[in-house]
Fold these 2 entries.
Entry 1:
Amino acid sequence: MLSVENLTLHYGQSQILHGISLTAEPGKVTAVTGTNGVGKTSLLKAIAGRHPYSGGSITLDGKPLDHLNAFQAGRAGIAYVPQGREVFPLMTVQENLETGFACLPKSEHKVPEHIFELFPILKDFLQRRGGDLSGGQQQQLAIARALIMKPRVLLLDEPTEGIQPNIIQQIGRVISQLRSQGDMAIILVEQYFDFMWGLADSFVAVTRGEVALSGKAGEIDREALLAKVSI
Ligand SMILES: Nc1ncnc2c1ncn2[C@@H]1O[C@H](COP(=O)(O)OP(=O)(O)OP(=O)(O)O)[C@@H](O)[C@H]1O
């Protein structure tokens, strides 16, 4: 289980996160939501070692992930699919996927077939440049690249942003499939309310760098959550 406790984060003098706490269990989807600029991406960046946090703690199965850099966080099993996808535009799909090998031993430098079962289009486009894919295909590539690391924690930052509805549905199915494997904790940062409402096992609404509301599916009130996201 990933556990974030009382996390604070600054950019220079400005404090963005003011003591965020959440947990993400294997085999569950934890949705983090909130309006623009409340600190959702900053939270993921702190977990992924992309930006240092100022205080609080992050642990994975009780083991502290003390201020790791991005490579160390990857080695520890944390995969991050950034907002905007960050696909390498001049590299082929195959080469983009292979960048996921960086955190794996040499013996595991092979793209597993199940990646293409999840995202069949990538097999057809292996030699196509990343920059020539549609936004939806790039999103699939970004998720596939993260999965190659065999993560224990998958961080998804607004995977539906700017994506056409049929690909959104496919991404939803993939997230459900990954959940049902039972071994990966998935943190889904998402503003598309109905998408995350239908998918997540628990919810954390963030306002101004703090947790404003949290709870499990079936227990949390839909309208109360929606109100926090629509301010
Ligand atoms: N590198 C940075 N330097 C300074 N301020 C930053 C930096 N990155 C983000 N911020 C500021 O931190 C705040 C939180 O940004 P963040 O991207 O974490 O929010 P968010 O909830 O993910 O927003 P969005 O939904 O628009 O992506 C914003 O006010 C943003 O302008």
Entry 2:
Amino acid sequence: MKEIVAVLGAGSWGTALSMVLDENGHEVRLWGNDPEQQKEINEKHTNHHYLPDVVLSESIIAFTDLEKALEGAGAIVFVLPTKAIRAVAKQVALLLDGKNKPHLVHASKGLEQDSHKRISVIIQEEIPAEKYDSLVVLSGPSHAEEVAKKDITTITAASENQVAAGYVQKLFMNNYFRVYRNTDIIGVELGAALKNIIAVGAGALHGLGYGDNAKAALMTRGLAEISRLGVAFGADPLTFFGLSGVGDLIVTGTSVHSRNWRAGDLIGKGHDLDEVLNNMGMVVEGVATTKAAYELAQEKGIEMPITEAIYKVLYEKADVKQVIEDLMLREGKAELSSETMEKGNKEI
Ligand SMILES: NC(=O)C1=CN([C@@H]2O[C@H](COP(=O)(O)OP(=O)(O)OC[C@H]3O[C@@H](n4cnc5c(N)ncnc54)[C@H](OP(=O)(O)O)[C@@H]3O)[C@@H](O)[C@H]2O)C=CC1
Ligand SMILES: O=C(CO)COP(=O)(O)O
């Protein structure tokens, strides 16, 4: 199968996914909003700010005109920071005529500020169902830097429509990029978004000089509270043991590639949050997601003590050592709770 694929978002992940699609023989149109970057990609075949030292195939063409990028596309892949998804989806909706119905895919990881909505929900709100074929979430442990080097990567294509998930599996899969199908969109999106909170925390522990025991504690108990929130909103608890749960938690909670981990590390070393975010030069989704998840947990009465602690450090300038002490000295509890394993039916 050879498709025309419009990749919306010419940052690290959009560029790395474009390389996979190009490798698989598809016609790739990489859309961004920066004319200088478009010129660089089309003339020098590099995207030096987002993927330094990587040479792109000449057949990956960058666009700044969204209408031209979407013309005749069989698939449209949203790979934008969460805060840009709604605005870009609105523009896409205006350009789709309902005759050529593309498959929609998104590969972003976050929750919308204020509404706390998942990305697939935002896309469905903005693009009328009659204008596209299907919607699939592509998510898993996958640093752009490693995918661009063709390092072995596994990822999940989640959709209620398994024919659509199979289409996306076929679109992306090759000998270094293995794609699994999944039916649990809620669990995959929540696992992907919420692990970024824990990655910020893991970086902060490293920056503060804590060791491996602390890291294991944070990641394990972090996974417990991610699952608790997810299950309360209808996710399958088993999803959190999969690629977009524990898999993505490992990759971001232990790696210097992770922008969330690096931001946490700098915060742990005493740097100011605004300074850290301004100097990163790339999106750090975990900071905004911490706020969204904290508000969601408060609203629904779901216990998320690690998220609450990270929220206090990021948004209330709480002393990080004091916050850790408070976490450690909470009332003693049983390790496993039944609410983590009982699937709820609330939707976000
Ligand atoms: N990097 C990774 O390894 C992975 C990232 N992800 C997820 O993918 C999403 C995107 O991340 P990533 O590519 O890393 O982010 P980057 O910060 O590397 O790049 C973001 C890109 O989005 C562009 N952008 C921002 N707002 C708009 C807009 N309104 N219209 C058009 N373009 C816009 C930026 O353009 P400009 O340069 O002009 O600001 C930039 O090209 C995130 O949700 C992230 O969590 C998922 C898996 C892996
Ligand atoms: O989600 C990612 C890898 O799976 C990338 O994480 P960061 O956004 O923290 O770099």
